[in-house]
Amino acid sequence: MSKKKSLIWYSIIGIFILMQVYPVSQPEVVKENPNDLLVTTQVPDNIAVMLKESCYDCHSNETIYPWYSYVAPVKWLVNRDTRLGREELNFSNWASMSKMDRATALSDISDEVSEGDMPMKIYPIMHAEAKLSDEDRQAIVDWADELTEALFD
Fold it and tell me: With 0-12 CB in 10 A as exposed, 13-18 as middle and 19+ as buried, what is 78?
């Protein structure tokens, strides 16, 4: 191998190593969440399982970080998606949300899930259990719509 190719490879490896030590704060994991949706609200078991498998990694404080979420540049994407997901909706804070915020969140869930926008397209590629069938999507939509109505009964 020529000196030029060696230098290129050493540079690529060096950059990759430097990327690993670049400090990035990972959203905190909290396992005890007394205001969590699944703690404070009666959710059918099948819906609870789907929410845990398809939503909770980005939309709760109970994120499970897989091995690849510690390797840059993937860790940057995972941390950003988790942070943005929690900002948009955090099931761990459900009971502390106002009734109107919960209704808005449920409406958004219904829209995003029915349109196939959630979970994000890339998520089920690495998490096969998160893939939602059309029937699963409809079940979540029906549940969200029913819970919205129940909020105002």
Answer: buried
Amino acid at 131: K
For residues 60 and 30, is the Cβ–Cβ distance under 8 A?
no
Instruction: For helices 134-151 and 45-54, give the axis angle rounded to 10 degrees.
Output: 110
CA distances from 105 to 25, 99, 109, 125 (A): 26, 10, 6, 25
Residues 5-44 pLDDT 10s: 888 887 788 777 777 877 778 999 999 999 999 999 999 9
Residue with tokens 């690495």: 126
pTM of the model: 0.88
Q: Which pLDDT tens digit goes with each residue over 61-118?
A: 999 999 999 999 999 999 999 999 999 999 999 999 999 999 999 999 999 999 999 9
